[in-house]
Amino acid sequence: MRNLKDPRQTSLFDEFEGLLSSVAYRRLTGGWQHLFRHAILKLMPAQKLAAHFDPTLGRPTKELYSVAGMLFIMEFRNWTHDAAADAYMFNLDVQYALHLKPENQSLCRRTIERYIRLFRTEELAQQIMLDVTAELVQLLELDVSKQRLDSTHVESNMAKFGRMQLIATTIRRFLVQVKRHDEGSYNALKKSVRDRYEASDQSILGWKSLDNDGVNALRQGIAADLAYLVERYRRNKSHNGRSTYLMLVKVFEQQCEVIDEKVVVNKKTGGNIICNPADPDATFDGHKGSGYQVQLSETYSADNSGPLIIAALPETACESDSRAIVKLIEHFDEHGHRPQTLLADTAYGSDENFMACSRHSPQSYLGPAHDEGSVNPVFELISPTSGQEKGSTKTSLASAEQGSTAANTSAAAKISSPPLLTILDFAYDCQSNRFTHCPAGLELHRATTVNAKINTCY
């Protein structure tokens, strides 16, 4: 049975005022708890949670606004499920924030996990983020015209596997399913394969006692087992549709290849790979490890009392920051709070991103002059240019003139090569919104962008 209490209902007397000292009550009503109770709690998706319960039959649920708010606070305070349940029952400030009576409250870890599952099923977390952000912007009268963008790495809440452990775990997960649903097929497998993956992890992956040759042989053996299982069940309709088999195939494609009928483990796999079969969406970043990343845009106006995150766009860890601008524009188009100025670091400063922020195609942006006022930029992107590309240098004129003697070559090596031209070296007219002259002073007749470089004709 649904248990809903509108948080906008108020009591004639505040029970917390009689329980707390005047100092404690003043701190409570001046802190985040008061803001949460009166501005945020009403935004919780209690009605969507209520749709999963019968209106009249069954045992009453926990008060749904308070449970949804508890999940919000749990993430806000970075609590475990047990800590959140304790706070719901024992912490007066949390009970005040959730509009609960400070008595006879109960909540267990299992209940929290049940509601978390409903949140994931209905995809409610993102909507809460949008609703709360809009409410705070309006309530605090924040200036959102100035924002800054950057990404942060989020680690997956899963074990971090090396390559051999990843392959072995993927194989074991598949074999458990085969043995459970088709024991005859399982018993028909090679005995060496069955024995290896029925053993403990220490038996499979005990490479610490092996030398380099032993580790390489073990890695090769596990890769061969992976290829053997992929091929054996490729046409087996009872198993080739299972998620564990599809994971088996994906790991094989990412980690191995067949050369001259021999399975070879790839030396380099890149970042777009599965890091743990229990978390298939997490990928790998060479600098920060496995997991995800979130693109965060926050306000920085001096008129605001503090920064507020306006947009949070989750991505997998291998995504490049340079692709985030288009996603951010789409987010602002759909949800509002678009800035006038966006600060970002060098990773976002590609020519394509500046073009995207101009709301024009590259041809119209760099083409003939158009009427003043026809340009309607999404927002102004301010970002450093990336500078000279790695490995691309011009030949020094001094070294070309001095011949090929060792002494001259050594002397020429000390002369720094001039940098490549960048977009900032070309004269730009803000009124006509076009580049007008090349670095040598010659007039440009046409300019286009190809692979983030400017090709000019003059």
Features:
458 residues, alpha+beta, 6-stranded mixed sheet, two-stranded antiparallel ribbon, flat, disordered C terminus
Write a structural description.
- The structure is a single chain.
- The protein has 458 residues and is α+β, with helices and mostly antiparallel strands.
- Helix content is 42%, strand content 14%.
- Strands 1, 4, 5, 6, 7 and 8 form a six-stranded mixed β-sheet that branches. A two-stranded antiparallel sheet has the order 2-3.
- Strand 9 (427-429) and strand 10 (434-437) form a beta hairpin.
- The protein is flat, with a radius of gyration of 30 Å.
- The termini are far apart.
Give me the Rg, rounded.
30 Å
Structural class: alpha+beta
Pick out the low-confidence regions: 360-375, 388-415, 451-458
Which range best describes the helical content: under 10%, 10-25%, 25-40%, 40-55%, 55-70% or over 70%?
A: 40-55%
C-alpha geometry: flat
Largest sheet, if any?
6 strands, mixed
Averaging pLDDT over every residue, what do you get? 83
